[in-house]
Structure formats: structure tokens, C-alpha cells
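Example for tutorial group B:
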């Protein structure tokens, strides 16, 4: 009985300490967002760039020069895509009056029609050109604000690269061997988990964005770069992100194309989503994440509440890091098991 009480007391203390730490962490993430957000983005960019830098280093290029090359290449690509995106957005906004007029025609055509016993009514719905423009601008407002963060992200990235190359040696000198090994295992697991997620998810998201662009160009949908970029970014959001990205081009398809072509466009986008989101992504990832879908949805909703679209994009890799840390600490390993998609396999099984 005494042993049970001691174990219960230890678990209760762990839960209470965890709740206090989580409360402080959430308050810090909310109030210190201008500092924490660019740092987290820089960490994930580091995981994306590190394999390329080490690949160049293995082939004779000095490590510092390799990092300079990959960071400069990424910055140049970001600037090029940003300029292209701005031009495409400007062109799309010029056609907003036409899209608004076609939407009014579509509403007038279907007003009062009866389908399966239900009468269609758009009473009270009034969409003007200015409203469409503000909607598009607000949709990409967070992307624009993200672009303004890149200078801060670059500064953090430089220091993260310098720290990452010296941190293992300092850890080995600072901690005893038993603590060092445990800490080294945790850092290795985090690095492998986040690296795998960032690399594969970026590849899948990029592929989905490219296929979306090809479909939209072939069907003559304006703003194809905007919607393919939206597909690329929202593909990081589990389950719902890619589906949300289908809505704007689908609406434009029904406004600008013949009904048959519009239906074909929607079918192609849905098939593309199923192939990339269900088959290819599952084939690449397998069960490596091992996080409950309910947990992922709750985490995504929580990060969206805190940081908006950027929070949704960062939600899953942050969940991966937290679960790895919890699984490597004996006191919190039960929490990690509860967050998993499947129960761990025992030796008897």
C-alpha cells in the first residue's frame, strides 16, 4: 500500500509540474511570438538544409562554405518565388471585377431553383469586388507577414548552424557519461524524427504543389501560382490542409469554365489529393510519426489559435519533438504512449 501511495504521489507531482510548465510555455509562446516564431522556423530550415551541406562537405567542400552555399541558394529561391508570387497576385487582383460579375450571374441563374426538394436561395448574400479583393489579401496576409520575418529567421539560422556544429562536444564535456548518453539519445531521436518529417513532408508538399500548378495551367485557371503555393503550404497541415487549398481554384473553375470542365477540374484536384495525400505520403512516412490522429487535429487547432496559419504548419513537427522528448523520459513515457496511434508491442506479443 505504501509503495502504491509513493508511486501515485510521484505521478501526481509529475502531472502537476507538467501542468505548470505547460501553462508557462503557452503564455511564453503567446506573448513572445515575435522572438520564438522566427527561431522555430529557423530550426526547421536548419534541418532542411543540413543534409545538403553535409553532402557537399563529404565531397570535399569545407563545411562553412557548404552552409553558405545552401543558405544563399535558399535565400535566392525565396526572393525569386516571392517576386513571381507578387506579380501573379497582382494579375489575379486585376481580374477580380470579372470574377465578381460572373459570381453574380451564377447566383442569379440558380436563385429559386429546386434540387431534390430543396429550394436554393442566396438571399442576403452580396459579394462585391472589394470584398473579394480583401478576402484574397487577407488569405495571403500571413504569407506576406512571414516574408517580413525572413531577415530575423536568417540571423537565427546563422547562429543555429554555428551552435549545431559545436553543441555535441560541449555536451560531452559538460555532463557525466550516464547523463550524456541519455541526453545524446534524446537529441539524436529528435534530430532523426524532425529531419525525416521535414525532408519527406517538404518533398511531398512540393510535389503536390507542382501537380496542382500543372492541372490549373492546363485548365486555364488564373492565379495558378497562388493556389499551388497555397497547396504547398497547407499540405503541412494534417488531414484538412490540402482539402482547404482545393476550395479557391474549385470556385474559380465553376465561375470561369463550362460545367463539364469545372467538374473535371474538381475531380482532378481530388484525385491528385488522394494520390499525394493518401498513397505517396503514407508510402514515404509509413508509421514513423505514430501520433494519434485526434491528437494531431487538437494540436493543429491549438497552434492555429496561437499563431494562425503558421502555427498550423509548425504544429506537427512540434508534436513530433514533444512526443520524442516524452518517450525518452521515464516519468513521462506513459504520456507518450497515450499520444501514440498504436499501443507499443510487448515482448510477449
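The residue assignment follows.
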Amino acid at each position: 500500500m505504501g509503495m502504491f501511495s509513493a508511486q501515485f504521489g510521484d505521478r501526481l507531482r509529475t502531472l502537476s509540474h507538467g501542468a505548470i510548465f505547460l501553462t508557462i510555455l503557452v503564455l511564453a509562446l503567446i506573448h513572445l511570438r515575435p522572438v520564438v516564431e522566427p527561431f522555430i522556423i529557423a530550426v526547421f530550415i536548419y534541418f532542411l538544409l543540413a543534409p545538403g551541406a553535409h553532402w557537399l562537405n563529404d565531397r570535399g567542400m569545407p563545411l562553412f562554405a557548404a552552409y553558405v552555399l545552401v543558405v544563399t541558394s535558399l535565400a535566392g529561391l525565396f526572393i525569386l518565388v516571392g517576386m513571381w508570387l507578387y506579380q501573379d497576385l497582382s494579375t489575379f487582383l486585376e481580374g477580380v471585377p470579372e470574377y465578381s460579375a460572373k459570381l453574380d450571374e451564377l447566383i442569379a441563374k440558380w436563385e429559386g431553383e429546386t434540387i431534390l426538394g430543396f429550394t436554393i436561395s442566396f438571399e442576403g448574400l452580396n459579394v462585391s469586388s472589394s470584398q473579394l479583393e480583401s478576402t484574397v489579401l487577407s488569405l495571403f496576409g500571413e504569407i506576406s507577414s512571414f516574408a517580413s520575418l525572413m531577415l530575423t529567421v536568417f540571423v537565427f539560422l546563422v547562429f543555429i548552424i554555428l551552435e549545431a556544429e559545436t553543441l555535441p562536444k560541449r555536451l560531452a564535456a559538460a555532463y557525466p557519461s550516464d547523463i550524456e548518453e541519455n541526453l545524446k539519445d534524446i537529441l539524436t531521436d529528435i534530430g532523426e524524427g524532425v529531419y525525416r518529417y521535414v525532408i519527406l513532408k517538404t518533398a511531398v508538399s512540393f510535389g503536390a504543389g507542382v501537380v496542382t500548378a500543372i492541372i490549373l495551367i492546363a485548365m486555364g485557371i488564373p492565379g495558378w501560382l497562388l493556389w499551388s503555393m497555397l497547396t504547398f503550404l497547407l499540405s503541412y497541415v494534417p488531414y484538412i490542409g490540402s482539402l482547404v487549398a482545393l476550395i479557391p481554384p474549385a470556385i474559380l473553375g465553376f465561375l470561369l469554365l463550362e460545367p463539364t470542365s469545372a467538374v473535371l477540374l474538381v475531380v482532378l484536384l481530388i484525385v491528385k489529393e488522394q494520390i499525394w495525400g493518401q498513397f505517396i505520403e503514407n508510402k514515404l512516412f509509413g508509421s514513423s510519426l505514430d501520433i494519434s490522429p485526434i491528437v494531431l487535429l487538437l494540436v493543429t487547432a491549438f497552434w492555429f489559435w496561437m499563431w494562425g496559419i503558421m502555427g498550423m504548419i509548425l504544429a506537427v513537427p512540434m508534436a513530433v519533438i514533444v512526443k520524442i522528448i516524452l518517450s525518452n523520459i521515464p516519468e513521462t513515457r506513459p504520456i507518450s504512449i497515450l499520444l501514440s496511434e498504436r499501443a507499443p508491442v510487448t515482448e510477449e506479443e
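The chain has two domains: 36-174, 201-344. Compare this with the pattern of hydrophobic and polar residues in the output above.
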